[in-house]
Specification:
This protein has about 120 residues and is of the alpha/beta class. About 15% of the residues lie in helices and about 35% in strands. This is VOC family protein.
Length: about 120
């Protein structure tokens, strides 16, 4: 039996009708250091490698709905602090998951659902 499996998550590649606006949100609010780039035959886009994950924001080629089936979850040390510092509108109140863990959901400028996850342990 073949035991081929993935090694892990290597990248988060997003597209947007307004990629600069989306890149600014991820850089300025979430701290992911996206920068304008172009290499090979790719069109201009925003990208970076951050904590072992490659992030990229490309110009959306076709109209699409916001992502609702896959939720990117970002680890933070202080959910209340980051929400307050950036005045982030929440989808639901901060949820206590027990054992020191909490989550909260919010949307990026394109309407993609994101989550902050905090584990005090």
């Amino acid at each position: 039996m073949n035991t081929v499996k993935v090694k892990g998550l290597g990248g988060v590649i997003m597209s947007s009708p307004e990629p600069e606006r989306l890149a600014n949100f991820y850089r300025d609010v979430l701290g992911i250091p996206l920068a304008l780039s172009r290499h090979g035959n790719t069109p201009e886009h925003w990208e970076c490698d951050y904590n072992g994950i490659h992030y990229a924001v490309l110009k959306q080629k076709v109209a699409a709905q916001a992502n609702v089936n896959t939720v990117l979850s970002f680890m933070v040390d202080d959910i209340e602090g980051i929400v307050r510092a950036h005045n982030i509108p929440l989808i639901h109140p901060i949820m206590d998951l027990g054992e020191g863990a909490s989550i909260v959901s919010f949307s990026d400028p394109d309407g993609n659902i994101l989550r902050f996850w905090m584990d005090k342990n």
